[in-house]
Every structure is written in structure tokens, then in C-alpha cells.
Amino acid sequence: MDISPILDGFGIVLEPSNLIYCLIGVIVGMLIGVLPGLGPGATIAILLPITYGIGPVSAIIMLAGIFYGAQYGGTITSVLLRLPGEASSVVTVFDGFALARKGKAGTALGIAAIGSFIGGTVSILGLTLLAPIVAGFALDFGPPEYAALGVLGVLLISSIGNGNKLKAIIAAAVGLLIATVGRDTFTGAERFTFGSLNLAEGIDFIPIAMGLFGLSEILYNLEERHNQVHAPAKVGNVWPSRKDLGQAKGAIGRGSLIGFLLGVLPGGGATLSSLAAYAFEKRRAKQPERFGKGAVEGVAAPETANNAAATSSFIPLLTLGIPANATMALIFGALLIQGIQPGPQLVTEHPDVFWGVINSMYIGNILLLIMSIPMVGVFVKILRVRPAILAPITVLITLLGAYTVRNQVYDIFLVIGFGLLGYLMKKLGFEPGPLVLAFVLGPMIENSSRQSLLIFGGDPTGFFTRPISGTVLALVLVVALWPLISKAVRRKPAPVPAGPPADPPVEPPVEEKTP
Amino acid sequence: MPITDPLEEEVAEETRPPHAGPVPQVVAALVALAVGVAGAIGSFGLGLGELTHPGPGLWPFAISIVIAVLSLTLVVTGRGLQDAERFSKATLLTAAGLVTLILLAALLPLIGFEIPSLLLVCVWLRWLGKESWRSSIVISIVTVAAFYLLFVLLLQVPLPRLI
Amino acid sequence: MTILVGYLPTPEGDAAVEAGLREGALRSERVVIVNSPRRGAPVDEHKIDDDASAALLARARAAGVDAEVRQPLHDDDLAETFESLVEETGGTLIVIGLRHRSLVGKFILGSEAQRILMEASVPVLTVKADR
After folding, report:
1. What are the start and end residues of every segment in region (Disordered) (chain A) (predicted)?
2. pLDDT band (50, 70, 90) for residue C106
3. Neighbouring chains of B at 3+ CB pairs within 8 Å?
4. Are A509 and B71 an interchain contact pair (Cβ–Cβ within 8 Å)?
């Protein structure tokens, strides 16, 4: 493997301006991870207009920093307040809060930070080794493969996410439909424009993302006032003892692996992997009853896994151009804004972006380790800030930011409109994530399937006879029909009237706020 | 995946508002159905073309049909779902917040960003956040001044402005 | 009949509890120690934890006074919170601690103590921290 582009990537990251953007990104990520309310998705969406002002590498470095920084920050509220800042820290609550109650909050935070650092770093190493290989493999992909992959991505994210699958798929389909608004690139026909000049250009990604992710979350939070105020917690010593570290070692190792693997899968992501890592540790533990009562492994495993997953979810984005979760869809959009098409060509055509972003994560994780061990006290203090004071400021950033993209008030109204839509969707149990993701992938799926039809001479069976697109489409069918299959399988063994089902579905107890 | 812990229920309890019952569920599904049907009619009008030469309407038509069919399924099966939240008195807060946003967008090109922003922040703090008058006024002035400094003086963004 | 004592974990708060318990013993009335955190933020540094409130109750027991700790949330209406507690518990006296604040501090933050003094329907006893 030629390592000179990797070294060049470090050169890019170590440029002072990029270091500063990385620092800003991880600090912002850490902050919003601690503060209840805005999640990383909303924050990245709100900050999208900034990407116009700064170069692509710096922009993505910063946005990525927000994403994985939030994973660190979410731990703090889980441990101290039993309040998972992010959905991916939900399971950390069980043992983290139990440890805090025993006066070992510092230990829990320290172990989580070390685990996060190791998980993140292992995952970046995997990313460094694996990403170029996957990208090289994907270089031969043609339109049919991309069409199939796009459909698979949309479907996976809709069906693996939380909540009702049917609703998620409807939301995704609406996203695909919205993506068709504007001039058709093949025929030049205007679709769903109703004679409006603004609509003829199509609907821009930024207002959609800012509205559906950013503003909708602010509006939604207006209603939900936290009626619980906690006394300040005593954090204590953050440096874990040798005994605690010894106990957590195995969990950190396994958590890294689980997180890396699940993060790569589209739709897997941080939340699922933290659940899986926790359950795995509990299952293999000699005394599973310790879990929930302050087991160090119960903090180490999910926190390691969610960070590893956050990092490895960049692989499908950077190598195939398929965002693995809604936040990756935002970063996908940010790259497109800069005129960079994420995909297998990225590593050869834009090695600066590819390696710059990957290598920035090494630096970012070191910065986060510093912020979450010696400086944890600073971030704990942030919990005293009232979200009600921050809400109008974020609203103003959102609206004025949306204006600055093209200097058009029309864009502000679009953000408000999509903000309202997102709010109503959240209230009615539809996740906005699949809609945004499908919107991003929509043009690619449409264009490549139409190109494929032209290649096949109008014969749609061509999709199934090519080996790779055929395999992917077979996977699509499995995913689409999975609820039916699993129902059929589950119905076969004699139903046990009393007692819980043998393998209840994984459902995180907290609704995901814009992953 | 057995994660049985009393804490889990507590966590869930704290964050989940009461669910909304069947009417909003059905209404939401019907709206989605309407989108699907309208989309299908609209894209049929654009011309579907043939598989050898797909027209501009083929792809949106296919999606619209998917939306319509799935929404219809949701209308039928989704009545008992409990994932929608009740619209309560607190929803009025959101509605009020939304009105201030629309006002800001409408006033921005007319009188610049300063006064609408000031009002928006102040209203959000005083009535939506229940801050005291004093801190509402101080924070909103400081916020707008900071925005002026950042957007106008430092970044030199061409925001419509009064001063 | 009860005596309401406004308590924050500060020297002024301790002085208020001290005075409140003394009054409680004198008048043989129950003492309600009010530790009201501000609603909104996840953490308020003025809120006391269970250990601290147990310690307060122990102090009351040592003084021979029947006491309880209440922690109602308040928005921008601490005076009203006190007023409704007066009504609910049949309060006869409010005891609060006072601290010195600069003119600027008073202008920016206002004075909760002053509002309680002005709006309370029962006598208010104010105390300063021990030197």
C-alpha cells in the first residue's frame, strides 16, 4: 500500500487552520453532547451554511468532529444525571448512573473516555486500512450497482432505525419524491414546479436539512420542558484505578470490534452498536447480575462501541458514496455542496479530502481524551445552562444562516416550512432521518436506474443478472421482507403463553433525536 | 437482547409524553396517501415513457405508487400505534414560536435583521423560556449585537440591515 | 402553622436555617425548609442532594423542631412559589438570608429577596451570614 497520500493527509490536518477547525468541531460536539436538546445531526444541519465559507477539507473535518465529539459528551449526562444526551448513550445510563450513585462517577467518566478513545482509534485504523480496499473494489461499479446500493441504503436506514418501519419507509419515499422536484436532467421537463422559478432549480439540500433536522428539533424541544432539576453531582477522581482498567480491558476490546463492524453497516450506527456491545458483555459475564448495579464493563462496552461505530460509519460514505446514517447524509450533502461527489473515486481524485478527514479523527480523538479527562469539570458545569436561553440563539443562527447561502428570503421560508414538517413528523411518529437520506440519494438512484435501463435496452431483469447488483437487490428483498420472514419464523415454535418472547427486538428506550 | 432493568423503564418514562390515540395516526396516514395519489396523478401527466425510453414521470410515478400503497396499509393497520404524541397546551408554545419565525422572515427584507431578531429573541426568552424581563432584554440585546459583529463586521455577509 | 425557611447551600442559607429553627423552637411550630431550584437547566448548583437535606433534618431534630425539606421548581417567580407554600402549609413567617450585592449585580440579576419582602403576605425575617 502506498502510504505517501496518508502522510500527506497528516500534513493537511496539521495545518494550523485545520487543527483549529478540528478543535472547534470537537468542542462543539462535546458541548451539544452534554446539553440536552440539540443532537449532533441538528447541529451539523444548522452549521451547513458555514461550509460555503471554508474549504471542503476544513468543513468536513469540523462537521465530523461534531459528530464523534457528541459521542463523548453524551456520556457525561448519562452518568451524572441518568439522562442520555444522545440515543447512543442510553445503555450507559444503567451502570454509569449506578456507579455515580456509589460515588464513582469519575471512574465511570474516565473509563468511558478511555474506552471511547480506544474504540475511536481502533476504528480509524480499520478505516485507514479498509477504506482504500473497498473503494478499489467499488471502482468497477456501474449505474446498476449504484442504483441497487442506493435502494439498499435507503431501505436499511428506514428499517433499522427506531420506530415504525412502515412510517420510516413512507418518509423515505416522500424524500425520493421531493428530490424529483425541478428540471429533469434527462429530458429537461419541469417536474412538480407549478410554474415557480424557484422550484424549477429543484429544492436545495441545505434548507431541507436545516429545517427537518435543525429547526424541527428546536420547535419540538419548546414543548418538552425538563421538569427535573438535579443537584450538582460530585465527580470525584476521573483517573480509573488499575483494577477498574483491568476489569474494563476486555469490554473495551470487544466493544471496539462490535462498534466497528456494526458502524459499517448502513443503518447500524452508534445506537445499535452500543446496545449490542452492552448485551454481549452482559451475556458473557460470569456474574451478569452485576450489570445495572455499577459494573465497569457496562460503561466501557457501549461507550467504546458507539465511538467505534461513529468512526466506521464513514467507510460506506467515503468509499461507496452511500451514507450509513442520517448524520452521514448531512456530510454527504456538505461534500456535494463543495462539488465533491463522494464515492470510490474520492480516494484517487480528492486524496486531500479523503485522508485529511480520516487523519483528522486521530487528532480529534486525542483532543477529546484531553477534554474528557482533565477538563471534564468544565463540561459538567455546562449542565447549569438553561436550554431556553440557547433556543432563540440557535433559531437565529439557523434562519440567518439559511439566508446567507444564497441571500434569498425564499430559503428562510423553506427552512421554516420544512421545520414545521419535521416537527409534525416527530409528533406523529415519523422519523425525519430517512426522508433527508432518501432526498440525498434520490437523484443518484434515479439517474443510475435510468442509465441502467438504457444500458439494458429497457429490460429490467438486467439488474438481477449482473452479479453485484443482483446480490445487492437480493439483499434489498431480504430487508424489505424481513418483518414477514421473522414473523413466520417466530410463529413456528409453539407460542409460550406466559413469559417474554425468547428474543425481543432491540429497542432503545429513548426515541432517537436526529441521529 | 435482555436488558431488563428498572432504570430502563424510568428513563423511558421520563422522556415519553402521552400518546395521541387513533385520530392523528389515521389523519397522518391519509395525508401521506393524498401525497402519493397527487404525486401519481402529477407524474402520469408528465408522461411515463417506456422502459427503453423512460419519461420524466416514470420514476416519480413509481415512488408515488409506493407511497400510496404503503400509506393505505398504514391507514388500515396503524390505528392502534402509540408512537404519536398528543398535541397539548404546550403545542401552542410551538405555534407561537413558529409565528415569530414567519414574522422574522417577512420583515427581514423590509426593515433589516436587527429589530426582528431582537424581538424574536426577546419573545422566545420572556414567554417561551419564562425568563425575567430584565434578563430577556439584556440577553436579546447582547445576542443581536454579537450577530451584528459576527455577520456584518467580521464575515461581511450581505444581510439586509437597518444600520 | 409553619415557618418557611428559604435555603440555599451558602453561609446566608445556613444562617437562615439557624434563625428559622430557633423561631420554630420558640413558637413550637413546624419548619418547612424550602430549597427551590430554577426550572430549565438539568443542574442547578443551588439544589441540595439527599445527603444534604438529611443533614438539615438532623439539625432540626437536634434543635427539637419538627421539619421537612421541600424542593419545588420555580421559573421567574420565586416570590409566588413562596406565597403558594404559605397558603398550602399555613405559614406564619418566612425566614430568608440576605447577602450584599453590588449595584450592577442587582441591576442585572434583580433581587429575589426584595421581591419576597415586597410580595409576601406574612412577616419576613431576614438574616445575614455569620461573620
Report:
1. 492-515
2. low
3. A, C
4. no
pLDDT tens digits, one per residue of A221-248:
888 756 688 888 888 888 888 999 999 9
Do C98 and C128 form a contact (C-beta atoms < 8 A)? Answer: yes
**A499 touching B, CB under 8 A?**
no
Query: Which residue of chain B comes nearest to A50, CA vs CA?
Result: B155
The candidate with the shortest Cα–Cα distance to A296, out of A84, A117, A119, A96, is: A96
- Which three cell numbers, joined as nine digits, stand for A81? 444525571
Among the partner-chain residues C45, C48, C49, the one whose CB lies closest to the CB of A384 is C45
Pairing of strands C124-128, C91-98: parallel
Q: What is the per-residue pLDDT across A430-482, written as a single tens digit (0 to 9) for each? A: 989 899 999 999 999 999 999 998 888 888 888 888 888 888 888 888 877 77
Q: What is the pTM of this model?
A: 0.88
Count of other CB atoms within 10 angstroms of residue A428: 21
Q: Is B64 on the interface with A (CB under 8 A)?
A: yes
Using CA atoms, how far residue A108 sits from A120, A217, A285, A294, A381, in Å, is 18, 29, 18, 9, 17
| Residue B20, helix vs strand vs coil | coil
Q: Are A50 and A70 in contact (CB under 8 A)?
A: no
| CA C111 – CA C99 distance, rounded (Å) | 10
The crossing angle, in degrees rounded to 10, of helices A92-101 and A296-312 is 140
Contact C2, C95 (CB under 8 A): no
Compute the average pLDDT of residues A269-290. 89
Listed by start position, the domains of chain B span 5-80, 91-154
- Smallest CA–CA distance, residue A188 to chain B, in Å, is 8
Report the alpha-carbon distance of residue A276 to residue C128 in Å, rounded. 56
User: Using the beta-carbon criterion (under 8 Å), do B90 and A222 form an inter-chain contact?
Assistant: yes
Which grid cell sits at B73? 396499509
Place of cell 421539619: C67
> φ, ψ for residue A120 (rounded to 5)?
-60, -45
Q: Which residues of A touch C41 (CB under 8 A)?
A: 229, 383-387
Over residues B119-138, the mean pLDDT reads 92
Residue of B nearest to A177 (CA): B60
Chain B residues lying within 8 Å of C107, measured CB to CB: 134
Residue ranges of alpha helices (H) inside chain C are: 11-27, 50-62, 78-89, 103-109, 112-119
Task: List chain C domain ranges.
Answer: 2-128
> What superfamily does domain C2-128 belong to in CATH?
HUPs (3.40.50.620)
